[in-house]
Amino acid sequence: MWKKDTPRVKVRSCLRFSSLHPRFHLFTAMNAIATASALTLPIFCKASKLDTRKALKGRFRVFAVFGEEKKNAWGALFHVEDPRSKVPHYKGKFLDVYQALEVARYDIQYLDWRARQDVLTIMLLHEKVVEVLNPLAREYKSIGTLKKELAELQEELAQAHRQVHISEARVTTALDKLAYMEELVNDRLLQDRSTAEVAQPSSSPSTSAKSLETEKRRKPRKNLDVSGPVQSYHPHLKNFWYPVAFSTGLKDDTMIPIECFEEPWVIFRGKDGKPGCVQNTCAHRACPLHLGSVNEGRIQCPYHGWEYTTDGKCEKMPSTRLLNVKIKSIPCFEKEGMIWIWPGDEPPTATLPSLLPPSGFEVHAEIVMELPIEHGLLLDNLLDLAHAPFTHTSTFAKGWSVPSMVQFLTPASGLRGYWDPYPIDMEFRPPCMVLSTIGISKPGKLEGQNTKECSTHLHQLHVCIPSSKQKTRLLYRMSLDFAPVLKHIPFMQYLWRHFAEQVLNEDLRLVVGQQERMNKGANVWNSPVSYDKLGVRYRLWRDALERGAKQLPFST
């Protein structure tokens, strides 16, 4: 029955039951068996005749057989050496790019090891939960004890899960930094290779000229030429859908006059409630239509009462015979709380982009402003966060420290990424939208290293509509994933607008100065640095669009 090499533990009960009640004998025997079963021990009982009437005679024995421990199938996943002992020591030294890359590599190895340990902790805690809930073991614990043990395990599991999420976020951040450093290394290698090619003695003047041309072509672009005076907008920039108004601002009997690409337009709702956009100029005497009114889905000129539908057709001419007259109209649609127009000459695309805030956010403010600056300069400003500690010292960046290094980390081909060291994600979405998500703990304070580590967030949408050469229509929408009660506080919309105007005024005094100098010939992108990456990419995208490039950069 037993193998020779099988370890055995024999527990022998020497209790005699002859003097006890028969039911007690049976109950005691069953308890002993249940106890051994709860310990997952094989049970072998040997006793004399079991007679409930005459009590138990003889003795019973419990044998426990311990085999080899089961090997965890996931063991190889967690048996990873702690890399901290191998980290190179560069404390107090200025690192070159290769040393910094080596340190970053060990950082990722450590974070990977840390994440594995976190997952292992969760697995072990789950095993403890299984042990606590073992049906046989529960027979010997009170309900209060079980509740206490489960509550403690639940808290430990919650803490372990939080730690896993933090580790995941840290690994992601470290990988992004490593990718950025690899890009720097590749640039350095390319420059070294180009320098070596130029330094080699050439056999002929033509070979030398080719080497110089190769070096010039391979060198990264040092600056962008964005100098004045401000020019008219290129027609290619018109061939996009532009959100020009919020739906909440367009009632059935109201109209919204706008200027887009130096042309006047007016938006109003037709009889069916759908919005339309027509030229803001009467076909009769060129009177501005927005000075009139909307009657039964038609906009009426205040001069002689001519009325136009949303497609521009004149349907009413008081005091004269009706003529076949029509004013210009452009495609206009409503989607997700915004009014969109297509001002270009090319056929509009079939779908409208979505600008809704992420899931879990509620819109708290929708604000429209007319600003006296060219829309490209405003986009340059919105795509730059490094200026915040110096410019916005009276508003949202009050009390911010000045980091030793600010970077915008993004894939090699893309128009979105995040700011380091700020917990802010940002994206430029062509042709004129900037979306950002900011991790916050309380007003004026930032929390964590990235947005994933923050418990509360603010989401912003900025739409910069090109009105004229030196004028931009700005649509701003602010959403929060916390404090929904703020939506129901009276006059809160006015407070949000006041704060937004304060922030913009801090920027405007600088950007207006830029515009004045640009009109006199200054280049506003003379010496871009690392934290200008997103703004530079916007300018490169716009330059390629205006040149008519078939494949626009950063479009993937």
UniProtKB/TrEMBL annotation:
<protein>
    <recommendedName>
        <fullName>Rieske domain-containing protein</fullName>
    </recommendedName>
</protein>
<dbReference type="InterPro" id="IPR050584">
    <property type="entry name" value="Cholesterol_7-desaturase"/>
</dbReference>
<feature type="region of interest" description="Disordered">
    <location>
        <begin position="192"/>
        <end position="228"/>
    </location>
</feature>
<dbReference type="Pfam" id="PF00355">
    <property type="entry name" value="Rieske"/>
</dbReference>
<dbReference type="GO" id="GO:0009507">
    <property type="term" value="C:chloroplast"/>
</dbReference>
<dbReference type="InterPro" id="IPR015881">
    <property type="entry name" value="ARHD_Rieske_2Fe_2S"/>
</dbReference>
<keyword id="KW-0560">Oxidoreductase</keyword>
<keyword id="KW-0411">Iron-sulfur</keyword>
<feature type="coiled-coil region">
    <location>
        <begin position="136"/>
        <end position="170"/>
    </location>
</feature>
<feature type="domain" description="Rieske">
    <location>
        <begin position="241"/>
        <end position="341"/>
    </location>
</feature>
<dbReference type="GO" id="GO:0010277">
    <property type="term" value="F:chlorophyllide a oxygenase activity"/>
</dbReference>
<dbReference type="InterPro" id="IPR013626">
    <property type="entry name" value="PaO"/>
</dbReference>
<dbReference type="InterPro" id="IPR017941">
    <property type="entry name" value="Rieske_2Fe-2S"/>
</dbReference>
<keyword id="KW-0479">Metal-binding</keyword>
<keyword id="KW-0001">2Fe-2S</keyword>
<dbReference type="GO" id="GO:0005506">
    <property type="term" value="F:iron ion binding"/>
</dbReference>
<keyword id="KW-0934">Plastid</keyword>
<keyword id="KW-0150">Chloroplast</keyword>
<keyword id="KW-0175">Coiled coil</keyword>
<keyword id="KW-0809">Transit peptide</keyword>
<feature type="compositionally biased region" description="Low complexity">
    <location>
        <begin position="202"/>
        <end position="211"/>
    </location>
</feature>
<keyword id="KW-0408">Iron</keyword>
<dbReference type="Pfam" id="PF08417">
    <property type="entry name" value="PaO"/>
</dbReference>
<dbReference type="InterPro" id="IPR036922">
    <property type="entry name" value="Rieske_2Fe-2S_sf"/>
</dbReference>
<dbReference type="GO" id="GO:0051537">
    <property type="term" value="F:2 iron, 2 sulfur cluster binding"/>
</dbReference>
